[in-house]
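Write out the 3D structure for:
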Amino acid sequence: MSLYKLRDYQSEALSDLQGSFRQGLTRPVLYASVGAGKTVIAAHIVARALDKGKSVLFIAPYTALINQTAKSFMDQGIPQPGIIQAQHEWTDSSKRLQIGSIQTLSRRGFPDVDLIINDECHLVYKGLTNYMEDFNTPVIGLSGTPFTKGLGKIYDNLIEVKPMRELINDKYLSDYVAYSQGKPDLSKVKIVAGEYHEGQLGDAMSDPKIVGDIISTWLRKGENRPTICFAVNVAHAEYVGTEFEKVNVSCQVITGKTPMEDREVYFNEFKRGNIKILINVGVLVAGFDSVVHVMIDAAPTKSEIRHVQKCGRNLRTAKGKEVGIFLDHAGNLTTLGFPDDISVDELCQGKKNESGKVEKKEAVKKEKLPKECTSCQVMKKADEHTCSKCGFTPKFIENVEIEEGDLIELRPSKHTKTDKQRIFSELMGLKAEDNLKGRGKADGYYAYLYKDICGVWPRNMTNKAITPSEQIRGFVKHKKIAFSRNKNKGFKL
């Protein structure tokens, strides 16, 4: 067989896997993030089993991935497998390697084999778990995101192939730069079964301002590079696509209902550069391997698994790609974290505390949540004080981070007429928020803030309120703190 040569860390993972079986742990999970070479490792496992005369069942999470997996194995010299799928030309139960989707196997039943490899094992299906309860067949789980609650009740060991950050540092994955566009207002969006209500979320993210920001930000920071955009639902995806087309950017919407043959055409056109942006609803998360330079995230989620998988589409290395660019309009980076900061060192057992709720390790995660540089809007790690992108270092006064970088951004000499209108509109938005909270101030207060920023009083401005930026909020916070200090200087007991 012409198996791809294993990297050192891949060989170590296989050794750890063998050690797991020697200890009697026959249901391990190989934790292999994007870029770790999960399929290559799987091919070596399959080849070793076949060489020993064993039979193997490889379970794909989706029917669409069956042919892709089979081709990858055959490219490495593994004999043509049997495919468990209706009317497939390679259906052959005599083959010692069988590949099938979990959906088909759950309906038809599982063949009698010596080893099962379950790809994307964080997707838990009752058909397989029932089989694992009834039979002692060794099962190896593969996953880049083994975060599912209770996964430790199904599998008995976790073997991490190589952490994502180490893969980035060793150039197996692309490093990235992330830009935050602020958190969308999701206060009116219901949470159903631990995730945002799709219809309500689609309506919220279809706000013309948010969609307008998506277009303008990509034109400024996307650098006209191959891009994937994650949308909430079909209506939202089509809306975003229409707005991109209005500025002559070639794009294509792909949904779960897009026929496979059409997808292949779109993927090929994307690879050729004829389609600049693929706007999708959930179909580019797994199994998509085209070169991507930019990821637009316009689909807020509560799921760490979904978040990491989306980010992973933009971490593949490519010729001419220095870094992957993340444009976060969903707020997922600020609420869930950077993809290389989200990890586990053991499988979740789904243990419950005294209140009956599943325990979470939220405290550790919150400390790792990234934050936005107030000078250049690049997202930086929680422990990164000085921005590695622009070099700006915020000053701290009495444990309050004063966003003085905003003051630099808000110098009068820097503002065009358009900038001045936006600043005025953001201050009107701040006024509207203050009024709702019952702490609104006179018009003169906001006019004074405008003058302090722009150097002139507001004249001939359109009285339109928009959501205040973090720069404006930071400036106002700074002014309030300064005012409070001056006010208390003369106070004595």
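Residues 417-436 form the longest helix (20 residues).
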